[in-house]
Amino acid sequence: MPTMTLAKAINAGLRDALAADEMVMLMGEDIGSLGGVYRVTEGLKAEFGEDRVVDSPLAESGIVGTSIGLSLRGYRPVGEIQFDGFVFPGFNQITTQLAKLHARSRGQLTVPVTIRIPYGGGIGSVEHHSESPEALFAHTAGLRILTPSNPHDGYWMTRQAIECEDPVILFEPKRRYWLKGEVDLEDPGTSADPFRAHIVREGSDATVVAYGPLVPVALAAAEAAAEDGRSVEVVDLRSLSPIDFETVTASVRKTGRLVVAHEAPTFGGLGGEIAARVSERAFLSLEAPVIRVGGFHMPYPVSKVEGQYLPDIDRILEALDRAFAY
Amino acid sequence: MAGELPTTEFDDIPEELLDELEALAHERTEGHVNMVQLLDEDGRFLNRSHFAERAASLSVDELRALYRDMAMIRRFDAEATALQRQGQLSLWVPVRGQEAAQIGSGRATLPQDYIFPTYREHGVALTRGVELGELLRQFRGVSNGGWDPKENNFHLYTLVLAAQVPHAVGYAMGLQRDASRAAAAGRELPEPAATIAYFGDGASSEGDVHESMVFAASFKAPVVFFCQNNQWAISVPTQVQSRIPLHNRAKGYGFPGLRVDGNDVLAVRAVTEWALERARSGKGPVLIEAYTYRQGAHTTADDPTKYRLTAEEESWLAKDPITRFEKFLRAEGHADEAFFAEVAAEAEALAAKSRRDVLAFEAPSLAAEMQNVYAERHPLVEEELAWHLEYEAGFADADAGADANADTDAAEGGR
């Protein structure tokens, strides 16, 4: 089984998707000769040609809008948005058109478009390059949202997103692009259903739900909590729309405590949705209120202070302490 | 070294394109540079444009069909407006005054072309064979579409301004790819096809139109941008959207743009036919600005008397596309009284049928609507749908029980 970085795994996923289906094509800014600013599409133009790996004009609405048109003609376009904070010029096309065409046409039209968005902070970048806008899309019916936390999922979610008949947004945690791991290119194993959450560490005293860039942080926090004799279960959500509440709720029923961690601002974020659903479904199993750990209600801060903004091991441990105080 | 790099001065603009742009610049009508007109206001055929040949080659039956289409859509439009006034439609988007722009362009398309309308293209829909009554579903509130877009290659209406324009470009890029894949595989080439993106003068200000034109030009996509400049974006005149004639914008993107008298069905048909042939043959996009006038309100929700002058409306009524074409047909001896009476009777029948259709529409169930949110199964939708059905069933139980205190029962029957 090969070991590779998340970026290479997504690259391999794109390559295999291009090879498997001639209707698959990639489109985005600088994805051709340069291979993307994170080199995720490196080598693909050379291998498949400029008609399959298209350097687009610098126009996000154009990338999404023409991808919709191409999908109506039977193609399976994969559009790349260069950075999270630059998706907004394309927001209209994603939310009013891409998400709704299937419903508006009563199922007569399908728009199997994949939108790849590198997201999240922790790389010391300038403004608009470190944001987590996933809740804005999760709130829109008609879209599916996936986010891998490891190379194996990176490979398979790329393949699964492209094969899905619905539009899928693939949020790629950019600070984990260089994270290495084993990838089984033949067998997805437990990743066969992209919309199932994974229990990535078993525990009995509390559950931490995280996704994308924060999964390694949550695991490290669970490790640290174990030194204090607390057994913490970690759930990697993987799919943000739909959310696998069955797995989350089952875990909470077992542990009785829940902390949800994400980089996006806490207010109006997915953590609130998870807290509310778990309260409805497993209220009597809860020993403590659901506690959220996330960004503050402010624009993503300048990089010199992002360390204080981003949920880290200590912030998750503090949340666990509060949960255990009940 | 710099000399070897691609120049930014576009030294390689093909001579052919320059010639086309030059030829178009010599079309002049009524003080408009670059406006193609084949019929004057009195319906006299003007043989001064190089597009005249195309119009002259139309058979009498084809000419009569153009009139028939325009008359039918005007009557249908009047009926829909009346239906809205009577509370049977929540909104209507009248097309009165723009019949020539729509029928002329629609009749220039081939079945394999794909049309991306905005929300006013009732005339184009007619030319594509869409059952007109179906257009009313959206305005009746029983559908967000109403017809199968693939059946007539006529896309659903798009209410978000200009959002359909990049879709037309993407679809056109798909047509291009179909051809190149077939060539690469040694398969028979598909019939050449193009797309048309309809939008208005107001929508021309939207970024999506700009991005679309950039994509179309860069990839030489077979798309015709058909802008109906009806002079008013609700209450705001064209001058606020553009300080130069809209068709001039095309030159900045590197493809031909021209203005056509949008109230002259022969000119619109000829110009659109030329643009589509050009696109299908691989020469890239064209922008057509159909210079026309919305005689009525933007939608039944606004009141044009608040923002424009009667004198302006009257001056445009003199250019009415249907009256003008009727004069032409009569003067040329192509149609007599019996023909016009026959068309009027047919239009009455269409209006009556449309009214019957509207009143017979049944609203879909919310449950059915929920089932089409996603193409593949989705647990959240399934869960909410199950809850909704159970909740609704609770009311049914209460009704069946004939209990005076039905509200309480219904609440208990819910979650």
UniProtKB/TrEMBL annotation, chain A:
Q: What is the top-level taxon of the source organism?
A: Bacteria
The record, for Pfam families, names: Transket_pyr (PF02779), Transketolase_C (PF02780)
Q: InterPro entries annotated for this entry?
A: THDP-binding, Transketo_C/PFOR_II, Transketolase-like_Pyr-bd, Transketolase_C
Q: Where is the Transketolase-like pyrimidine-binding domain?
A: 4-179
For activity, the cofactor(s) needed are: thiamine diphosphate
Q: Keywords in UniProt for this one?
A: Oxidoreductase, Thiamine pyrophosphate
- This chain belongs to the protein called Alpha-ketoacid dehydrogenase subunit beta
UniProtKB/TrEMBL annotation, chain B:
Q: What is this protein called?
A: Pyruvate dehydrogenase (Acetyl-transferring) E1 component subunit alpha
What cofactor(s) does the depicted protein rely on?
Answer: thiamine diphosphate
* Chain ranges of the Dehydrogenase E1 component domain: 68-349
Family matches, as Gene3D superfamilies: 3.40.50.970
User: Keyword Oxidoreductase: yes or no?
Assistant: yes
PANTHER family, per this entry? 2-OXOISOVALERATE DEHYDROGENASE SUBUNIT ALPHA, MITOCHONDRIAL (PTHR43380:SF1)
Q: Which UniProt keywords apply?
A: Oxidoreductase, Pyruvate, Thiamine pyrophosphate
Which CDD domains does the record associate with it? TPP_E1_PDC_ADC_BCADC
The record ties this protein, via InterPro entries, to:
Alpha-ketoacid_DH_E1_comp, DH_E1, PdhA/BkdA, THDP-binding
